[in-house]
Amino acid sequence: MRLSSIFSAALAATSTLAFPSAKLAAYKTNSTVGPEKGHLVIVGGNLKSESIYQRIISLAGGHNASIIIVPTAGGDPSYDQNFTTAAAFRGLGATNVTVLHTYDPAVADTDKFVAPLKSANAVFFGGGRQWRLVDAYYGTKTETAFNEVLERGGVISGSSAGASIIGSFLARGDTSGNDILVGDHTVGFGYLKNAAIDQHVLVRNRHFDMFQILEVQPELLGIAIDEDTAVVVQGNDAEIIGSTYALIYDGGFWSRDGSGGKYDLPEKKFYFLKAGDKYDLGARKVVETETTSGDEL
Ligand SMILES: *[C@@H]1O[C@H](CO)[C@@H](O)[C@H](O)[C@H]1NC(C)=O
Ligand SMILES: *[C@@H]1O[C@H](CO)[C@@H](O)[C@H](O)[C@H]1NC(C)=O
Ligand SMILES: *[C@@H]1O[C@H](CO)[C@@H](O)[C@H](O)[C@H]1NC(C)=O
Ligand SMILES: CC(=O)N[C@H]1CO[C@H](CO)[C@@H](O)[C@@H]1O
């Protein structure tokens, strides 16, 4: 008890220092971790690749796994069992896909509504506006049951808004529009701690938007994922899969051709990872593998 309070007092003291190294110290004292058990599959919107769907299915336990699709971010008046993403999973061989939806937190807090989640192996959050997921499920039995899916070794996945909700900080959570990075909803479901997750990043020219969040909370790890690309997380291990890139905002810089130190780098640094690349979320460092070595032709 005493030791830990001395430690947090020391942390507080360092983080109030007003020079850049205090910022760096803040990055280092805030490790980013995914779930101890289970996996996250975080998709940057416009999910098309069969390989990403198949990764979700196989991490969930195969084609007979129970996969729950939550379309609530989408904002339609109602949803039936043939919601597009559910149909897509079924089309790829998943046999037990259930659409689960309400906008009413009182409904989300009932045992009846939560029942299908109790034996689920995966949850997939569809796209739309991420604050709708917060308004419907935050603090309810449903949110508890989402957590239990991971605790049982299952999968939490989502695309677009469904990606952002996975972070502890809710990027673009404003009810008035998706162009406000720090909005009236800033708390996500936090399956990935100390992190903000953006999506559609290259297609929508959002490369620099993450800094609006990091200016307010510099300790966060920023991850901005492009369309049809995913970050797969287990504990501190992250791997990129899919079509294009995930952008990492960790205060540092990395390049596969080793040019990290050669240029005069701007203060607002970020860098790109592609399919096959691995990242250590705890150390906030790229894991050097065959895919990260530069192959210049
Ligand atoms: C999935 O369920 C079907 C029908 O119950 C069964 O025939 C099949 O063997 C199961 N597949 C796997 C991989 O468990
Ligand atoms: C969903 O699609 C199936 C197959 O096309 C159809 O039989 C079923 O009636 C549809 N269900 C709803 C709720 O529209
Ligand atoms: C399908 O998933 C539901 C909800 O998790 C579960 O209750 C049910 O037993 C599963 N059905 C089959 C045939 O495995
Ligand atoms: C969990 C944790 O250690 N959070 C700290 C991250 O760094 C900021 C300073 O930027 C502290 O205020 C947090 O307490």
What does this protein look like?
Belongs to the peptidase S51 family. Residues 1-18 form the signal peptide. InterPro entries: Class_I_gatase-like, Peptidase_S51. The protein has 297 residues and is of the alpha/beta class. The chain has one domain (3-292): 3-Layer(aba) Sandwich (Rossmann fold). Helices cover 27% and strands 22% of the residues. It has helices at 2-16, 20-29, 50-60, 84-91, 105-108, 111-114, 131-137, 141-151, 161-164, 210-216, and strands at residues 39-43, 66-70, 96-99, 122-125, 155-159, 167-169, 192-199, 221-225, 229-234, 237-242, 245-249, 271-274, 278-280, 285-287. The strands form two sheets. Strands 3-2-4-5-1-9-10-13-14 form a nine-stranded mixed β-sheet. Strand 7, helix 10 (210-216) and strand 8 (221-225) form a beta-alpha-beta unit. The longest helix has 15 residues, at 2-16. The protein is globular. Mean pLDDT is 90; it is low at 1-20. The structure holds 2-acetamido-2-deoxy-beta-D-glucopyranose (NAG) (4 copies). One 2-acetamido-2-deoxy-beta-D-glucopyranose (NAG) binds next to helix 2. The site of one 2-acetamido-2-deoxy-beta-D-glucopyranose (NAG) has 3 residues, from loops.
